[in-house]
Amino acid sequence: MIRIILADDHALLRQGLVALLSEEDDMDIIAQAGDGKEAWKLIKTMRPHVAILDISMPGMNGIELTARIKRAELGVRVVLLTSHSDPSLVLQGEKEGATAHILKENTFEELVKGVRCAHKGCRFISSILAAKMEGIYPTGANNRPSPREQEVLAQIAKGLTDKEIARVLNVTPSTINTYKTRLREKLGLKSKAEMANFAVRMGLDK
């Protein structure tokens, strides 16, 4: 049974999703919250398998809460809900540790699929968001930067040298060079400046 906490500040949507998810044989909604701070308290104490979080919540938004869950090493998988088909939100969410991204206008079936996928540790993106990402990456959405590569891009955007990035990420400078080579291949970026511009455009410098 997948133990789930759902957080969304829109009560009608939240209650509707709770009702629908509760009908799934393998899912148990153990708690729900109307804002990020309330959700954080529930997640800390109840330790669900999966937290479904609205990206735009008062108190603490979904991406900020995802980052806090990651830092606390709670072992909770995060599914982010969003009303905006902005690919940069996917990258920001993945950078902070989100496993799945669901666009609210997509079908309920995609949310169910995303929750089950997140519980298993595999990544899932709503079909509309995935199509948007296809337009960003010349090699396709499947070759988008990994969370670790996104961390490297974020540090590049801050103007750090390879040695400084290596210290921040606790790896060797040669490892950073390897990441940069992969990023050049994936994104078609030829220089560090282009990598920095891409990171800023995608919101990875935040």
Keywords, separated by commas or semicolons:
about 210 residues, alpha/beta, Rossmann fold, Arc Repressor Mutant, subunit A, 10 helices, 6 strands, elongated
The proportion of residues forming helix, as a percent range, comes to 40-55%
Largest sheet: 6 strands, parallel
Shape by Cα distribution:
elongated
CATH topology of the largest domain: Rossmann fold
Please identify which CATH superfamily of the largest domain we are dealing with: Response regulator
Provide the succession of SSEs.
EHEHEHEHEHEHHHHH
Strands side by side in the biggest sheet: 2-1-3-4-5-6
The number of distinct structural domains comes to 2
Rg, rounded, reads 18 Å
List the total number of helices.
10
CATH architectural arrangement of the largest domain: 3-Layer(aba) Sandwich
Number of strands: 6
Please identify the top-level CATH class of the largest domain: Alpha Beta
Low-confidence stretches: none
Structural class: alpha/beta
Q: Kindly report the average pLDDT value.
A: 89
Terminal-residue CA separation: 36 Å
Care to describe what's here?
A 6-stranded parallel β-sheet has the order 2-1-3-4-5-6, with helices on both faces. Strand 5 (100-103), helix 5 (108-120) and strand 6 (124-125) form a beta-alpha-beta unit. Helix 3 packs parallel to helix 4 (87-96) and helix 7 crosses helix 8. It is elongated and about 50 Å long. The protein has helices spanning 11-22, 36-46, 62-72, 87-96, 108-120, 127-134, 147-157, 162-169, 173-187, 192-201, and strands at 2-7, 27-33, 50-54, 77-82, 100-103, 124-125. The chain is an alpha/beta fold and 206 residues long. It is 53% helix and 15% strand. The chain has 2 domains: 2-134, Rossmann fold (3-Layer(aba) Sandwich), CATH 3.40.50; 145-201, Arc Repressor Mutant, subunit A (Orthogonal Bundle), CATH 1.10.10.10.
